[in-house]
Amino acid sequence: MAPLHELERLRELDQYGIFGTPPESDYDHICRLTADIFEVPIAMINLVARDTVWVKSKIGLEVQDLPRELAFCSHAIQGRDLLVVPDLAADQRFCENPLVATSEGGLRFYAGAPLATPKGYVIGTLCILDRQTRAQFSPKERERLKNLATLVMDRLEKRRLEQLELMTSSLMNAASEGIIIADSTYNTRYWNPAAEKIFGFSGDEMIEKPVTAITTDHADATLLIQALEDAVEGHSGLPLTLTTRAKDGRAISTEVSIASWGSGAGSTPEGPLGFGLIVRDVTEEMAVAEKLAWLARHDELTGVFNRNHLRQVMNDALAAHGDIAVISINLDRFMAINDTFGHRVGDALLKVVARRLARELGPTDLLARIGGDEFTILRSGQTDRTQLACLAARLQSAFGETFSVDGHLVTTTASVGIATSDLGEANTDALLNAADLAIYRAKSDGGNGWRFFTPEHDRRISVVRSMESDLRGALSRGEFTLNYQPKFCLVTGRLTGAEALLRWTHPAKRPISPADFIPVAELSGLIVPIGEWVLATACEALTRLPADFRVAVNLSPVQFRRSDVAETVAAKLALSGIAPARLEVEITESLLLENNRATAGALEALKALGVTIALDDFGTGYSSLAYLCKFPFDTIKIDRSFVQTLETEPGSAAIVRAVVGLGRDFSLKVIAEGVETEAQKRMLLSFGCDEGQGYLLGRPMPLEALLQIATNADSR
């Protein structure tokens, strides 16, 4: 018969690590003492497992183990009190037991005291046996047997604690994180090898020192003491981030988690018994996070703000109904400079240009590089044309001096376009586009000048309107096609999928670049029906491709604003009958800036359909890290700008390596865009990047060509 909570009792027995171990002098001594005190021939310490009783120590009976059903102690462990049987032969429970019923030397008397753990589980007995009956077993004798059983249990508990201490010490010594133990007065009592590696100080140098010595910042030390006090009260807060200097003088940052044990009661009136601090070196992690946060708002080449930060500030200013002016600056003949002197000189020139433009900024101006050789200044609170014209003149004067760049003397000018928010229903896209149109007008007039945007006279407007008119009929005329750029596993080289790329061939105007027609389609709202066509066409293509093939489709922010994207995707999936997991939707970070709640809802709805979601151009936008926590992404795509400078910019390599690590930490697949050289591929592979796409691996191609390579890959 097993006692209640048998599984828990057996687990408790395992904690002592004694079942099946050979005799030990401590326990043998207790057995002899027990036999002498009670003047019996037999005394035993028994441990009761599931089916077997192990005799840890014995006097007077040569047995090492026996089946549990034959052992008297199987009954003794049923309760917490002694089991005393004056005459085993007269007891119905034991009279037929072979140890009792034998004709010669059968056992007649038994008294067993349970061995109870601090949690109350009985794991065995200390028992005495005799071949003679005992009519009496006095209360004093009972108490003595109980006390001897307590002595056995004390020895067992000491053994358990010693084993636990050994395991704990080994574990803490092997831990990769620093582990520090402090006493109730906040002095260090234990300092593991990982802590020594983090801080550079050995255990001998830190033992007995205040635990606040792990930081050299007075404010951080105060926070640490407060966190220790909070731990005493049972308030476990978030990990602390502390700054200090290692023994060799290096500035390091650590993340510290705190636990406390014990209490101020009983024998420790001075306070809690102790504290445990788990320390993680986050110096490199914080540096990468700070770099990524900086890159989310800044242009890596020039150090000025980037397009996404500019858009964010413009959105905020327009939402507050503020007056703003956008001044865009585009270098004249920059391509010729690149062709003549090389891209290294071109990049160096952009850095110098950024510094010169920054000298001309007013107190409310913001300078951003929004791409290539184009810079934009945002002026808040002022749209006076005279003041803006003066600024434009100063900007052009900044180009009057010859640039000395990497040993070359370079001369260039700039065209400036100006747009203001007082032109009517202005929004961020409209203002930026208007400033661009003003630049085109300045360039068409010979460059090296500035122009204000005037919609009623600007000839570029007619071009945009003409393109919009052509776009409206392009879908019905069948002028759109999809090309597919393949994606490959960088480790195996296996074809894993493709990205669908929209192409437009105008009957009279040749192929038109997506960079030209997609902004017009977005401004006019035509991207919604065009996007639906792209989805339907990609899904139909998937019906012809291998069953494990996946196609990615880009979704515009306008599609999220003007339509139920999830409903549209669900309809296309149902119509084609393909598995949702074969379709991947790609979004850019500009979408996430607009309406987090609505965007999150749409993305969650897409996720619920079973499609996968990729964040495109990761690292170029605003607060990329936050998006990984807020939105249900499956994939992140490293922007081609980082990949293309892997071989020349150490910063790009560090960022790519960090992004791959983030993908791994967030369990996201990482795809690198724009892989064009074997060196880039090798570096991405060494970083652990999952997949890649680019001209080195495969150019965009029609569906029939994709079908051929997909079928060939599938057959191998």
From TrEMBL:
<feature type="domain" description="EAL">
    <location>
        <begin position="464"/>
        <end position="714"/>
    </location>
</feature>
<dbReference type="Pfam" id="PF00989">
    <property type="entry name" value="PAS"/>
</dbReference>
<dbReference type="InterPro" id="IPR001633">
    <property type="entry name" value="EAL_dom"/>
</dbReference>
<feature type="domain" description="GGDEF">
    <location>
        <begin position="322"/>
        <end position="455"/>
    </location>
</feature>
<dbReference type="Pfam" id="PF01590">
    <property type="entry name" value="GAF"/>
</dbReference>
<dbReference type="InterPro" id="IPR029787">
    <property type="entry name" value="Nucleotide_cyclase"/>
</dbReference>
<feature type="domain" description="PAS">
    <location>
        <begin position="164"/>
        <end position="235"/>
    </location>
</feature>
<dbReference type="InterPro" id="IPR000160">
    <property type="entry name" value="GGDEF_dom"/>
</dbReference>
<dbReference type="InterPro" id="IPR029016">
    <property type="entry name" value="GAF-like_dom_sf"/>
</dbReference>
<dbReference type="InterPro" id="IPR013767">
    <property type="entry name" value="PAS_fold"/>
</dbReference>
<dbReference type="Pfam" id="PF00563">
    <property type="entry name" value="EAL"/>
</dbReference>
<dbReference type="InterPro" id="IPR035965">
    <property type="entry name" value="PAS-like_dom_sf"/>
</dbReference>
<dbReference type="InterPro" id="IPR035919">
    <property type="entry name" value="EAL_sf"/>
</dbReference>
<dbReference type="Pfam" id="PF00990">
    <property type="entry name" value="GGDEF"/>
</dbReference>
<dbReference type="InterPro" id="IPR003018">
    <property type="entry name" value="GAF"/>
</dbReference>
<dbReference type="GO" id="GO:0006355">
    <property type="term" value="P:regulation of DNA-templated transcription"/>
</dbReference>
<dbReference type="InterPro" id="IPR043128">
    <property type="entry name" value="Rev_trsase/Diguanyl_cyclase"/>
</dbReference>
<dbReference type="InterPro" id="IPR052155">
    <property type="entry name" value="Biofilm_reg_signaling"/>
</dbReference>
<protein>
    <submittedName>
        <fullName>Diguanylate cyclase (GGDEF)-like protein/PAS domain S-box-containing protein</fullName>
    </submittedName>
</protein>
<dbReference type="InterPro" id="IPR000014">
    <property type="entry name" value="PAS"/>
</dbReference>
